[in-house]
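Posting for a labmate who doesn't have an account.
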Amino acid sequence: MHMIILTSKRLIGFLLTLSVFACSSPTVKQYAQQTPKLDLSGHFNGTIDAYGIFTDRSGNVQKSFTVLMVAKWSVVDGKKTGILDESFEYSDGTKQKRIWTLVETSPGRYIGTADDVIGEAIGESAGNALHWAYTLALPVDQSIYHVQFNDWMYLVTPKVMINKAKMSKFGINLGEVTLSFYKR
């Protein structure tokens, strides 16, 4: 009996350890050696077209959309600062505008603000990847919901970037946004 309890404790310990590793999220540092190297102010500069879909938690496409982004960077108070002016057009005919202000706080680290972002978006880049975490005030029907975004962008070629963003509320998965950015 004592042996069964000891074996059960080891099994439970092993399963807990395994679950921690299985649930661990990627870190941006693991992409440090990946190329092409992402220079955020270089890539998001000029005119960029994006094409995307929103899928619900079951994987069903709910909306598709296009984005026209005009971006430019300058130095403000000694820090690289970018303005990303995004114009969205959704498959249901609705349109939306978002203007991001991005500030490089240190090499590879960024904060971002926009009118519909609650607080600040926190970003970090390494190699070909950029990770953003933020809360967005998302309009749905006649209501506004504060939704958390876990946003990953990967530079695939010097002109193409893929973006996958998981959306959640209270830790519950709501769906994903998938985008492909093309730099003109």
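Reply:
Got it, the structure tokens are right above this. The first strand starts at residue 46 and ends at 56.
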